[in-house]
Structure prediction request, 354 residues.
Amino acid sequence: MKLDNKKIFQTLNPNKVWVPILIGLGIVFLLFYLDPSVNAKTLRGVFDASAVSIFLAILVIIGRDAGYVYRIREITDRKLTWVRAIYVIILWEFASAVTPSIVGGTAVAVFILNKEGIKLGKAIAFVMVTAILDNLFFVIGAPIILFLAKGNIFPESRTIELRIGNSLQYIFWVSYSLYAFYTLVMSAALFYKPRVFKWILLKTFSIRWLRKWKQQANEYGNQIMEASRQLKGKSFSYWIPIVLATVFIWSSRYLMLNALITAYNSLTVTEHIIVFARQIIMWIVMMISPTPGSSGTAEFFFTQFFSEFLGGYTFVTSILWRLLSYYPYLFLGAIFLPRWIRQVFFKKKTEENE
Prediction:
């Protein structure tokens, strides 16, 4: 198993921080220009927010990041110190922010864990576990929260109806089915029959027009088998805190927006559930976005999904939402990455010279 260090360093290039920022600012400017309701008075609405709700939103997002740090420590059997776990999470989030959502920062996460002293096989296993657990939260949680929302999950927006009609619902259910199938297959491969999975993979890529990817399929099959070996025999005491942390992380991710909306408008319990449910729909849409960190896609769909709850405060709330949930990781990554490189690589060279 090998990691393409050159490609990973290109992904982690701090200069890339400007790409999603410029894309996001460009989309914000376009939305500002095209929306007649956005003016100086609208922008001053940011000062109308409830300080208590804003503080609660910040507290929730900090709690989410603390959950990430705790989970990665538990998944790695506490091989990482709290400080090293913080570095891993910040750089992982940074990699996700500067790459298209459909790509994500998985390979970078494996690289970072490996450089933190965790063997490659274990690093792959740990990253795969986080991916499966995150997907399971969506696969299991989505039907429950959508049922509680009583069908009020797809916004009745003229913009959406004119441009994509009812296809938003089809996109969601098709994406949900693909996620559910992928999660089921990967769970079975990782925890039940990794060797069978590799065999099927190689047979599939032995087909004439797929043969050029057979080597990569073989490598992926080896990674699954190695990851399965690393996770074999883990007890319930290992899995329970990790599962609970995953539920906490994703609930916090969504509840942050609920807190932001209540800064401008009080919500009933049912409306809170609808806002929470619609974020699940948005998450799927953002996951297939080709732009870094879903820049532009997130800002556009935010208006369509939540304007009925915010009215004239929609624009400023969308800016606050991205400022809390996305842009901090760009700046933190640009700060932490050079330090991490000096700590990991220069320290290693010094030790070798000694």
About this structure: The chain has one domain: 5-353. The chain has a mean pLDDT of 80. The two ends are 29 Å apart (CA to CA).
